[in-house]
UniProtKB/TrEMBL annotation:
<dbReference type="InterPro" id="IPR051553">
    <property type="entry name" value="Ran_GTPase-activating"/>
</dbReference>
<feature type="repeat" description="RCC1">
    <location>
        <begin position="54"/>
        <end position="105"/>
    </location>
</feature>
<dbReference type="InterPro" id="IPR000408">
    <property type="entry name" value="Reg_chr_condens"/>
</dbReference>
<feature type="repeat" description="RCC1">
    <location>
        <begin position="106"/>
        <end position="156"/>
    </location>
</feature>
<dbReference type="Pfam" id="PF13540">
    <property type="entry name" value="RCC1_2"/>
</dbReference>
<dbReference type="GO" id="GO:0005737">
    <property type="term" value="C:cytoplasm"/>
</dbReference>
<protein>
    <submittedName>
        <fullName>Uncharacterized protein</fullName>
    </submittedName>
</protein>
<feature type="repeat" description="RCC1">
    <location>
        <begin position="3"/>
        <end position="54"/>
    </location>
</feature>
<dbReference type="Pfam" id="PF00415">
    <property type="entry name" value="RCC1"/>
</dbReference>
<dbReference type="GO" id="GO:0005085">
    <property type="term" value="F:guanyl-nucleotide exchange factor activity"/>
</dbReference>
<dbReference type="InterPro" id="IPR009091">
    <property type="entry name" value="RCC1/BLIP-II"/>
</dbReference>
Length: 185
């Protein structure tokens, strides 16, 4: 585990964790995490998520609720998970406009939205933007995100994906967000 987090690159949406910082071509320390138990850091398009001391922190652009919380985009703030059980966060992922986390009990929570080539397709059939973490699947072993897809490796060995199928060749997801389950033979 790292004790410090350094960032560099574009700071277009304050995704470097410091609103006063211009784009940085050299690593800059995020002072909020100095000497903390940093377990993981992932970058979305213009937002960032960190897992620190088993808590999720987000910062950067929140136009489509990829931060999973209300509040100042420029500040590094905790995302509050409303769960029925006490289970630690063991994984995080981020895409263009969504974020997700995996709990040790196998539950996956996600928030934000998905896009396809026509624009925003929504988080699910009823919700254009999911503003706070929502339980989307159970019995998951690992999570991964690309720009507009969350893929989950199930404890049973199967794979589940949520999001937009931009190329219509892998997941057979229709225009709206769908779930596709595929179990290995």
């Amino acid at each position: 585990m790292s004790k410090n987090v350094y960032v560099f690159g574009s700071n277009l949406g304050s995704q470097l964790g410091n609103a006063d910082l211009d784009d940085s071509y050299k690593p800059v320390l995020i002072s909020a995490f100095r000497n903390q138990n940093v377990q993981s850091v992932v970058a979305g398009s213009i937002h960032t998520i960190a897992l620190v001391n088993n808590k999720i922190y987000t910062w950067g652009c929140n136009d489509e609720f990829a931060l999973g919380r209300e509040g100042d985009e420029d500040k590094i703030l905790e995302v509050v998970l409303k769960t029925r059980t006490k289970s630690e966060v063991v994984g995080i992922s981020a895409g263009a406009s969504h974020s997700a986390c995996l709990l040790e009990n196998g539950n996956v929570y996600a928030w934000g939205t998905f896009r396809d080539t026509s624009g925003i397709i929504g988080f699910d059939y009823k919700t254009k933007y999911q503003k706070t973490p929502k339980l989307i699947h159970r019995n998951v072993k690992k999570i991964f995100s690309t720009d507009n897809v969350i893929t989950m490796l199930l404890k049973t060995g199967g794979v589940v994906s949520y999001g937009a199928d931009l190329w219509r060749d892998r997941f057979k997801i229709e225009r709206r967000t769908r779930c596709f389950k595929n179990k290995p033979k």
